[in-house]
Structure formats: C-alpha cells, structure tokens
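Async update (no meeting this week)

Hi team, since we skipped the sync, here's where things stand on the single-chain job. The sequence we agreed to prioritize is pasted below, unchanged from the tracker. I ran it this morning and attached the output directly underneath so nobody has to dig for it. Comments welcome in thread, and please keep replies under the output.
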Amino acid sequence: MTITVSFGEAKHSFDVSDATVDSLNLLVTALLKLLTGSRREEVEWYLEPEWLSWHFEIHGHLLELQISSTEGPNSPFIISAEKTALISQVAGGLRVLEEQPCWTQPRAGEVVWSWLFPGDTLLEVLRKLTNSRHPNLTVE
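Output:
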C-alpha cells in the first residue's frame, strides 16, 4: 500500500507492507496515546526490506514528527506543528483511507492490508480531538 505524507510544499510517498506488523493500528494507537499524555511514540513501517520510522515527540505545545527511512535521500523528513493540529491532519488522512471501499470488500485483507482497519481506535482519537476543542460536541 502506498502512503503519502505532505505538509506545506513537501510531499513524500512510501510503499509500505503489512508483513510482520500492523502499522496502521500502531499509528492510530500512537495518536491516541499522544492525546492522553504520552510525550513520545514511534511507529515503524516495513518497506521490504527497508524500514520507515515515524517518531513523534512533544515539545511544549508543538508535536514534532520525524520520518526517516533506511533508504533514499528523503530521510529525515521533519514536520512540527501545534499538537492537536498535526494529530488532526494525520487522523483526517486516516479517516479518508478508512472510507475507501477496499476495506469493506470481500477478501480486502488479502488484497490491500492483512489487518482490519483500526476504525474503533480512530473514532476514539476523533472524539478526543473534538472534546479538546468543543467539550459539548460528540462524534459518532
């Protein structure tokens, strides 16, 4: 599966594999942990045979995302933004991914990603983001 990361003018795409680890689930879980007090999280993506690492670290009110790989000149790629803004951007991209019909098709796990989409955890991330901005709203 190809994932694309863009921020401002910078844009990088990576062909990731689901072999050995469910990086989508790890990414959504990392976002949730960052919203609930964690200061550092790391998610690894398998590029076969190389690795891509997403390292999140909070510095004051900013969240830094450093993306580095063991291949290519695009390493490292660093994004720094207000914590909830950056988490919202990543969660929004995941929401778009979740809406793709491939996740509901028969045999989707054999064709796209061997793991179920972490929709329940993503919904919790979106709820926490909404509650942090608008405590009286609910997300369903």
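Quick observations from my side:
The CA atoms of residues 35 and 128 lie 7 Å apart.
Strands lie at 2-7, 10-15, 40-46, 51-59, 62-69, 77-82.
Reply here if anything looks off.
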